[in-house]
Amino acid sequence: MINIICVKWGTKYDAYVEKLKKQIENNCTLEYKFFCLTDNPRESYDIHLPTVWDHLYDPTRGKFWAYRKCYMFNEDLFPELDGDQFLYLDLDVLIHNNIDHLFDMDMSKPSIVRGWWNNIDICKKNFGKLKSTPLNSSMLRWERGQMKPVFDHINKNKEYIFFTHSTIDNYFNHHWYDIYNESKGFLKGFDKGIAYSWYKGNIFPEDMELNKLRQDHLLCLFNNSHSVRTGIVEEEHMHQINEIRNLWNT
Amino acid sequence: MEYLKYNPSLSNNWSRAQNHVFKNTPWAINRIVDSFTTSQLQSKLWLGTEINNLDIKFKNVMVLGGWYCHALAEILIGNLDIDFVCNYDIDPDVQVMSYKFNKRYKDVGKFKATKRNIFTGNIDNDQLNKGLVDLVINPSCEHMWHMKHIRNKHFDIGHNGPIYALQSTDEEKYDDHINCVSGPDELADQAEMVNVYYSGTKILDSGMKRFMIIGR
User: Fold this and answer.
1) Distance set, CA A218 to CA A4, A119, A152, A190, B146 (Å)
2) CATH number at residue A46
3) Which of B94, B119, B142, B174 to mutate to test the interface with A (most CBs of A within 10 A)?
């Protein structure tokens, strides 16, 4: 059985869950179960998020803020997740095309979005400064048990990790990826042409136009929605973007 | 301590190391330049001076976050005659460059660089084989978690454990300064240091206020 998972906490993305569910229905012909791990379960697909790491998060520092996404790496915490194939999607994504082939790919390693829009030399330069990760966890694909070492590592070193790493993507880059030999790490990146970023571009340096739809790709990500557009201070929602609104509402 | 011993073997290693960076790792050029500022050397000479004032012959030294460790290795091995120095850093570039800057000491088994996160990982085996670590230096505590966690994870507490020489700052404008302190007292508190042998503050050439404590 295929499990397609999203995670939601707080209320900011309340409207996004059904949108994502609908997009998956439109773009997946395989048999699957949809789940939302949430702090406020209300729907039949909702699963209650654990809270055991909550006390480690310091909102004044904001480190490792998306830690709730990491509970799912221990599937045994959730009896509802009874299959072997897992796909995680952020709520703020736009699915352009059929996603069936994500469940027919080489799964010798778990996969994460490799942000091809990043200049890898900048990532190397800033590695020691704990910033500029080339990874993006808006989409993750793994088989049952494959991500358990990540969960265990976080659990074992949780105080250090919550103190040190600004984001979970930064954490992945430091502990589970190898930017010097990208075929060597525990995680592998999705190939070019799968995911691009609305706010950051597609592939460095040749295709970096921002705010551009690329509908031949699988997924459009809306990472960094709060800071990229000049003049926008507050976070931008997908329905506020003219080019996106109709596609998202389809 | 006012200077390094700038001799032909140091000159050879440092020029070759910089040549390697220009040719092979251009993304690191500015980082290398930053590592050679007046303030960087002031800070390391201050460290060397106060370690020397302890009048203890150290044999096996752990350097945490030592970056390229060019000046510091020369101070510790060249000036203070320390037997073995192991530099731990999380940056893969650092290991390669640190070796190149210190080839003269690496070749005779006095220096090792390791890409290793000592908060989550273990002490390097080569360092363990040299006997007890007697001095732990962290010249960049503002970049990492509290030092008490290193001590609690790896070392004995009290007189059986190593001496710690720690530097930090209150300069918060850099986003990689994740653990600034208000002064040497807070730095000592973070390390849960009981016996403080030295505590001081220095304004560096850059204007940055630097704190240092040495103790157990």
Assistant:
1) 15, 22, 31, 11, 43
2) 3.90.550.10
3) B119
Select the residue of B25, B26, B145 nearest A164 (Cβ to Cβ).
B145
Number of domains into which chain A is organized: 1
What strands, in cross-sheet order, belong to the sheet with A85-89?
A46-48, A32-38, A2-8, A85-89, A135-143, A111-114, A188-189
**Who among B31, B67, B145 is closest to A125 (CB)?**
B31
Looking at beta carbons, which residues of chain A come within 8 Å of B91? 127-128
* Structural domain for A167, as ranges: 2-249
Residue B44 maps to a domain: yes
Q: What is the pLDDT of residues A94-120, one digit of tens each?
A: 999 999 999 999 999 999 999 999 999
Q: Which domain holds residue B159?
A: 8-215
Does residue B138 form part of some domain?
yes
Output the domain CATH number for residue B187. 3.40.50.150
Answer yes or no: do A157 and B119 touch at CB < 8 A: yes
Q: B92-143 pLDDT, tens per residue?
A: 999 999 999 999 999 999 999 999 999 999 999 999 999 999 999 999 999 9
Interface test with A, best of B98, B176, B177, B180 (most A CBs within 10 A): B176
The pTM of this model reads 0.94
> With an 8 Å Cβ cutoff, are A125 and B91 in contact?
no
ipTM over 0.85: yes
Backbone phi and psi for residue B146, each to the nearest 5 degrees, phi listed first: -60, 140
Q: How many domains does chain B have?
A: 1
Q: What is the C-alpha to C-alpha distance for residues B203 and B211, in angstroms, rounded to an integer?
A: 9
